[in-house]
Design a protein that fits this description.
The protein is an alpha+beta fold. It has 2 domains: about 35 residues, no CATH class; about 160 residues, Beta Barrel (Porin). Helices cover about 20% and strands about 50% of the residues. It has an 8-stranded antiparallel β-barrel with strand order 1-2-3-4-5-6-7-8. The longest helix has 18 residues. The termini are far apart.
């Protein structure tokens, strides 16, 4: 009889202990610890963002002239396939200077898939040309009775381009760039009469940030 009472008391004590907070915590400690050990998956490695570049090249038309410039751009995440850029350049000719600014859309294969990334561009902008012949040419023309004064010209136009980037590191790349420009000397008169073509070959360095 005493044995049955003892067993009953032990069973009651165990039941009460399971209802206490300590017992509840003990019952849930294991699953909580397992939940804390589960880590969320890492975020996707997005490629894209803003960039700046510097360029050095040559402009080809009736003559060849050196050109320097730079650009700012942005490629859309997550894979940097599409982007845009604004480029400004200054061309130094023997008989004047040409400044230009163009905005372009850029399509490339995507960074980090390869170190070599080809791209294409299409854009529009404006050129400002200042014509100032060398003094020797002025003297020769004046001897023939021809007087040439300094002149300026503003021409709108559009451009198509192709190029390739080589990534030296995650944030720095080199690029080679070819662009063909179609400019209008005047917005009046026949379209083809005032259209002329320029070509540019340049190389530069691009910084991503």
């Amino acid at each position: 009889m005493n044995l049955m009472k003892s067993c009953t008391a032990v069973i009651i004590a165990l039941a009460l202990s399971m209802l206490t907070p300590a017992g509840a915590f003990a019952a849930t400690d294991g699953p909580q610890e397992q939940q804390q050990d589960v880590q969320p998956p890492p975020p996707p490695d997005q490629v894209g963002g803003a960039n700046v570049s510097v360029l050095v090249g040559s402009m080809f038309g009736a003559s060849t002239a050196a050109q320097v410039g730079g650009s700012i751009g942005y490629f859309f995440k997550p894979n940097a396939t599409f982007g845009f850029e604004v480029e400004g350049d200054l061309t130094f000719g023997l008989d004047g200077k040409v400044a230009q600014i163009f905005g372009s859309l850029v399509l490339q294969t995507g960074a980090r898939t390869s170190k070599i990334v080809p791209y294409g561009t299409i854009g529009a902008g404006v050129m400002y040309a200042k014509f100032d012949p060398r003094q020797g040419i002025k003297d020769e023309l004046e001897a023939l009775g021809i007087v040439i004064e300094e002149d300026t010209e503003i021409a709108p136009g559009f451009a198509l381009g192709i190029g390739v980037r080589y990534f030296m590191s995650e944030k720095i790349s080199m690029k080679g760039d070819f662009r063909n420009y179609w400019m209008w000397r005047s917005i009046q008169g026949d379209f083809n009469e005032h259209l002329y073509t320029l070509r540019r070959v340049a190389g530069g360095i691009v910084w991503e940030f």
